[in-house]
């Protein structure tokens, strides 16, 4: 089935700014709350949020097999469960409805008043009920940098890293959408020169610039997913900020890895950009040496050219871009991550989320965490207000953005904007 929604010649009868992340060729999916306190599944074109539940009630999806309440829910899980054919049919239909030459909704003011909202008048929600969350460690540059800090340079990468996509199971209960503040966590740390840990606020809160993908129901328990089918089970992508406490992590990560140092908050962008929308931006990923085992081998273009930026904005200050990187640097692809994840027979469900791991590139300006950018705090970053940062300060806001662009179209994710607050004190 062709992806007519990607037609780069198409224009919308809705006004879309030239550099918008959300032209009619994007058509992401999300969930938002209206001023009337109605939660609905929606999409976005330009600076307009579009109520898909209302569109469905008014029969704009006639001819597409959908349950009656498909878009009148507070998550996208049921829609994602319907699979790739339905996603494409719905996205193509939305493109048709908002095409400048289609008058069916364009000239119906009564329907437009019900369906279309200014983006500033809605409150974005978490788009899916995330049952399981896995975070990978798939950037060779990031893994090498961290290895150099704790081991000799020649052994920076552990022997298994180049053979399998390393990952760990995270905590879904503290995944939050952009705009929700994050409290500095309390935890056990080991002060320098001491042998006994203390409990107190983390002193080294970091971001990790990542993307994540959302899956549909992919297999039954015990069943593997062939590498050449993996992308069929990926609905779309979001930006992800994997908040990390470096001092808590340093004390707890041996022998089992991250626990409380990463479960206090994970922020994501609220609009899920579909794999169909990202199709024009496929590129070859890094050459993999040694060649992976046959079940992880793939040919062709399996990575994506997505520009990723991070900025730190002090309280009452302006944003300072501190990192610029690209998803195409990621060593292990999403298809490989998903295939490996299921290779044990692990069941993959609708709404599961899998993070890429910090996406660092080859140069310092491409490093995807403060740990790398300041090399463990040894080389603080100077902001434009004259202050310095080794890690994130209370009341700093971390802003992440991502977009793809070619000569014909720009497809973006919007942003994750999350402020770090002091520790939460229960009254």
Would you write up a description of this structure?
This protein is 17% helix and 26% strand. The strands form seven sheets. Strands 6, 7, 8, 13, 14, 16, 17 and 22 form an eight-stranded mixed sheet that branches. It has 427 residues and is an alpha+beta fold. The termini are far apart. The longest helix is centred in the N-terminal third of the chain and has 14 residues, at 84-97. The model has no long low-confidence stretch (mean pLDDT 97). It contains ten helices and 26 strands.
- SSE class: alpha+beta
How many whole angstroms does the radius of gyration measure? 22 Å
The fraction of residues assigned to DSSP E strands is: 25-35%
In whole angstroms, the N-to-C terminal distance is: 57 Å
Could you describe the largest sheet, including whether it forms a barrel?
Answer: 8 strands, mixed
Mean pLDDT score: 97
Low-confidence stretches: none
- The total of beta strands comes to 26
The outline comes out as: globular
Which range best describes the helical content: under 10%, 10-25%, 25-40%, 40-55%, 55-70% or over 70%? 10-25%
Number of contiguous helices: 10
């Amino acid at each position: 089935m062709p992806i007519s929604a990607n037609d780069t010649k198409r224009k919308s009868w809705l006004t879309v700014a030239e550099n918008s992340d959300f032209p009619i060729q994007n058509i992401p999916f999300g969930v938002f709350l209206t001023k009337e306190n109605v939660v609905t599944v929606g999409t976005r074109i330009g600076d307009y949020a579009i109520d898909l539940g209302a569109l469905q009630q008014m029969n704009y999806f006639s001819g597409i097999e959908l349950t009656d309440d498909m878009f009148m829910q507070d998550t996208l899980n049921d829609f994602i469960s319907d699979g790739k054919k339905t996603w494409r049919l719905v996205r193509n239909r939305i493109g048709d409805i908002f095409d400048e030459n289609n008058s069916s909704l364009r000239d119906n003011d009564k329907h437009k008043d019900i369906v279309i909202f200014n983006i500033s008048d809605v409150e974005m929600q978490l788009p899916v009920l995330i049952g399981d969350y896995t975070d990978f460690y798939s950037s060779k540059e990031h893994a090498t940098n961290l290895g150099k800090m704790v081991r000799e340079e020649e052994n920076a990468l552990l022997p298994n890293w180049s053979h399998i996509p390393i990952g760990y199971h995270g905590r879904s209960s503290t995944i939050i959408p952009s705009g929700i503040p994050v409290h500095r966590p309390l935890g056990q740390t080991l002060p320098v020169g001491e042998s006994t840990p203390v409990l107190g606020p983390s002193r080294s809160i970091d971001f990790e610039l990542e993307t994540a993908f959302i899956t549909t129901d992919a297999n039954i328990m015990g069943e593997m997913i062939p590498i050449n089918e993996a992308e069929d089970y990926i609905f779309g992508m979001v930006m992800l900020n994997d908040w990390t406490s470096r001092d808590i992590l340093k004390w707890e990560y041996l022998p089992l890895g991250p626990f409380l140092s990463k479960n206090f908050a994970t922020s994501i962008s609220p609009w899920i950009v579909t794999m169909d929308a990202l199709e024009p931006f496929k590129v070859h990923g890094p050459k993999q040496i040694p060649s992976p085992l046959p079940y992880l081998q793939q040919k062709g273009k399996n990575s994506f050219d997505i520009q990723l930026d991070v900025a730190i904005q002090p309280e009452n200050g302006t944003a300072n871009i501190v990192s610029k990187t690209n998803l195409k640097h990621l060593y292990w692809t999403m298809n490989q991550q998903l295939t490996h994840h299921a290779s044990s027979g692990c069941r993959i469900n609708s709404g599961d989320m899998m993070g890429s791991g910090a996406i660092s590139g080859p140069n310092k300006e491409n490093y995807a965490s403060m740990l790398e950018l300041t090399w463990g705090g040894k080389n603080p970053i100077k902001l434009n207000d004259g202050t310095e940062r080794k890690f994130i300060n209370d009341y700093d806001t971390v802003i992440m953005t991502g977009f793809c662009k070619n000569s014909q179209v720009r497809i973006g994710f919007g942003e994750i904007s999350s402020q770090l607050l002091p520790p939460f004190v229960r009254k």
